[in-house]
TrEMBL record:
Gene3D superfamilies: Galactose-binding domain-like
Cited PROSITE patterns: CBM6 (PS51175)
Domain of life, per lineage: Bacteria
Organism: Paraburkholderia metrosideri
UniProt xrefs under CDD domains: CBM35_galactosidase-like
Protein name: CBM6 domain-containing protein
Pfam families in alphabetical order: CBM13-like
Organism taxonomic ancestry: Bacteria, Pseudomonadati, Pseudomonadota, Betaproteobacteria, Burkholderiales
Domain CBM6: 35-160
UniProt cross-references to InterPro entries, sorted A to Z: CBM13-like, CBM6, Galactose-bd-like_sf
């Protein structure tokens, strides 16, 4: 409303007025994991017995099993915008009742051993994050192994997130 050049502001309401409470109808279902880089991609290298398994609930409809006990999975062509430390989300399945572990190496560096809790089934995907160093460009690789036991099935990984 304008009277003789004086603008009358609407009343400023306390911010509390704008709080919204959204109704929740039941348990919240998270969207399924969607890999940026599929473990089963043709650019991956599977060795030592690691193999692709069909998995209807997996990102891309498949994952890579028989990683560990000599089997290795290398996910190649991972893009990073700059040299630096990145966190990578790993989608995996562990149908065992106890954790499985995998040694994860960024570009062949000394691997970190990561414990993957059970997911409730081999077609149930969970995620966890690993952190390591990538270089600028698309020549990065993430290598999964376990010399003395089975690693989880690996569905894929998300895009590296700079730290
Ligand atoms: Ca997959």
């Amino acid at each position: 409303m304008i009277r003789r050049g004086i603008f009358l502001h609407p009343p400023i309401l306390p911010s509390a007025v704008f709080k919204l409470t959204l109704p929740v109808a039941g348990p919240v279902t998270l969207p399924p994991f969607k890999a940026t880089y599929e473990a089963e991609a043709s650019s991956s290298v599977l060795a030592g017995g690691a193999s692709i398994s069909a998995c209807s609930t997996c990102s891309g409809g498949a994952d890579v099993g028989y990683v560990g006990n000599g089997g290795t999975l290398t996910i190649n062509n991972i893009s990073a915008p700059a040299d630096g430390v990145y966190t990578v989300l790993v989608g995996y399945a562990n149908g065992d009742s106890s954790p499985r572990s995998a040694d994860i190496s960024f570009n062949g560096s000394t691997p970190v051993t990561v414990s993957f809790p059970p997911t409730g089934g081999w077609n149930t995907i969970s995620t966890l994050s690993v952190t390591g160093t990538f270089r600028s460009g698309t020549a990065n690789a993430l290598i999964f192994s376990n010399p003395s036991g089975w690693a989880p099935d690996i569905d894929g990984i998300g895009a590296p997130a700079a730290q």
